[in-house]
Amino acid sequence: MTFKQKHMIKKLFLSHGTKRRSGRKLDKVKFIVAHDTGNSGSGARANVMYYERTANEQSVSAHIFVDGFEIVECIPAFENPEVAWHVLFNVDEDNKRFGDDANTSAIGVELCFGDPVNTREAYSKYVWTLAYLCHQYGLNPHLHIVGHFELDPKRKTDPVNSLKLINKTMDDLLDDVAFEMELCLYGDDPQMMEVLKRLDILEKKVSQPVPDWAKSAVDAALKKGLFTAIESGSHDFFRLLVAL
Ligand SMILES: [Zn+2]
After folding, report:
1. Which terminus of the chain faces fewer neighbouring Cβ atoms within 10 Å, N or C?
2. Measured in angstroms, how far is the CA atom of residue 114 from the centroid of ligand 1?
């Protein structure tokens, strides 16, 4: 299945063997961390040039920067992905949720925002980039994309603050990425798009958050390792779980 190449990804790799780009390979891409630069008005290329100028002064890095003009990959993310340092090692939410540190098992994508960056245009390229990464690594946006603020809530608010500028939430972002995946895979097939739309409506009808009466059964199932995550399901699914 080919994924629609709506945009070009500009490769401007940082110098190899520096603090920001050690060259160490990522073992397996297990999830994606959604960031924003936290620096209103700075563009993708400017951020990457700054990284390059200071490549041996600091180790903080991310794989991809996206603004209204372009998508710039500065640490290999799509082929032979390498490690970037975009989440503190000593936060443990990534370990709890994904069984690993973000730095050694996740791709970090930065959204550029704020005038003169066209935030809406940047958002649309950001959504496509995240969708393409999910496709590339067989990930589900709703399960495998996490906001930096979720991993490091004491220090970080990204990308929620920049999303607010265009009236989007983290949930909107995940929905938009999931829809973008469908569009880029099946957009030329109206029949398939119709089927997916109906499936989506159906899923929303039957899916509900974990009800109180099923919470202990859900906890037990997670502890037994029957599932890796249960965030929603149908009434019948929860009844079955309680019966078990
Ligand atoms: Zn961040």
Report:
1. N
2. 16
Question: For 56-173, where are the E strands, in sequence order?
Answer: 64-66, 71-73, 106-111, 145-147
| Ligand 1 center to 182 CA (angstroms) | 27
User: In the structure encoding, which two tokens stand for residue 15, read together?
Assistant: 């110098």
Which domain, by its residues, includes 226? 190-243
Ligand 1 center to 107 CA (angstroms): 12
Per-residue model confidence as pLDDT tens digits over 45-64: 999 999 999 999 999 999 99
Quick one: 178 and 204 in the same domain?
no
CA 156 – ligand 1 centroid, Å:
7
Pair 181, 195 in one domain: no
Residue 2 belongs to some domain of the structure: no
Mean pLDDT of the chain: 91
Q: Is 28 exposed, middle or buried (0-12, 13-18, 19+ CB in 10 A)?
A: exposed
Distance 227 CA to ligand 1 centre (A): 29
| Residue 225 within any structural domain of the chain | yes
Centroid of ligand 1 to alpha carbon of 159 (angstroms): 7
Task: Decide if 1 is inside a domain.
Answer: no
